[in-house]
Structures are given as structure tokens and as C-alpha cells.
Amino acid sequence: MHAPTFKIASYNIHKAVGTDRKRDPQRILNVLGEVDADIVILQEADRRFGQRERTLPDFLVEQHTDYVPVPFDVQHDSMGWHGNTIMVRRDIAILEHDILHIPYLEPRGVVTATLRLPAGLELSVFGMHLDLSGLWRLRQARAIAELARAAQEQRPTLLAGDLNEWRPNGGCLKEFARHFTVLDCGRSFHSQRPMGRLDRIIHGAPLEAVEFGVHHSPLASRASDHLPVWGVFRIPH
């Protein structure tokens, strides 16, 4: 009997503005339909200034997907915290959720949720979008890794997001690699000519990555300036 698997994806949706400069939330949801993940970590899910309105309207998510946004309810009309949010399939239970403050130069934050999958497995999930500054990225990664390590003592833990790290194995990646496995899903930025491996999925034991990669389709290359990254995981017996 094989251990059950689940799929997680991370996607910087660029406030639903595509490479054609058109804001099209339905196009983002269609890309998520192509990826077909159980858990989705999003960055830039809210507008950056003003009221920071969500860029994926509730009615579109409800009518056109099988996802439920984790209800962070931090800012009025926002979907997440500093643009970071988590969505899960309707059959996944959201046990806890929280926002985390981290050191920053630009406004940054982290979202986290404790989830129970249909097979009964409980997970801690962290979503993040790190700073453009290498020094601040390092500080942020150190703080997040410590929080995730504490969560890992309670249950299997996954982290995902846009790390803004251009070095393949250096910088902030070293901080996460002290305690976790950092997956190199592939080149995800820029979506029309991928060069940077900016988007990462990170996991702790006993989770095993069955497969992982970048979702590259004609629609995804237009919907945002990033491509989604994904990973399929299992816990071995």
C-alpha cells in the first residue's frame, strides 16, 4: 500500500497583472487549475498600496475553483498579509492560522497555517516573500527558519514562496538548508524567458518530495511575471 501524496504550489501572481499589462484574476485562477495543487501559497495577492485590496475576488475563487482562502482577516479587503496568502482545497481542514512579523527594509510578512489533510496528516505551512536586499533577506530567512523549526517539532512542516534569491545555493538558502531541504524546482522568473530560480519549496522530515518542478504553459507565461512552482510530497510508512 502506497503512502498518500499531496501537492503544494507556490505562485507570485504579480497582483494578477500579466505580461500584457492587463489585470486578469480569472487568468490566474485558470493557471491554478492547470497546476491542480491541494495547497497553494500565493505572493502579491493584494495590491501593494492604498487599501491593499485583494486581486482575486472572493466570488471568483468560490465560483471557479475548489479552493478556500485561509481567513487571515488582518487588513480590510485584503486577502492576506503583505500580499502573502494560502488557499486550500475544500476537503482540507484549517486548524490554526497566524501572521508573523519579520525584520524588513520593505514591508514584508509571513503567513502560516496548520492544516489537516483528508488522510489525517497534519501539516504546518509557511508562505513568504523575502526582501530584495540580500542583508535583509538573510535576517528574514534566519527568523523564519527558527519559527519553522519550532513548528517542525510538532508536525511536518513546509515553507514556500518567492525568496528573491538569485544565487543557486547561497545567501538566504543556506539559512533554510541548516534545518530543512530546499528544493530547486527550476527557473521561474521571468515567465516569458525564465532565468532566475527565485521561487522555492522547502520541507522538513519525514516528508519526502516525490517530484517537483516549474509549471510552464502558454497561459502561465502571460498571466504573471513569475511561473508557479510545485511539489508532490508523501510521508513514508
UniProtKB/TrEMBL annotation:
InterPro entries: Endo/exonu/phosph_ase_sf, Endo/exonuclease/phosphatase, GPI-anchor_lipid_remodeler. Residues 9-226 form the Endonuclease/exonuclease/phosphatase domain. SUPFAM superfamilies: DNase I-like. One of its GO terms (molecular function) is endonuclease activity. Signal peptide: none annotated. Pfam families: Exo_endo_phos. Keywords: Endonuclease, Hydrolase, Nuclease. This is Endonuclease/exonuclease/phosphatase family protein.
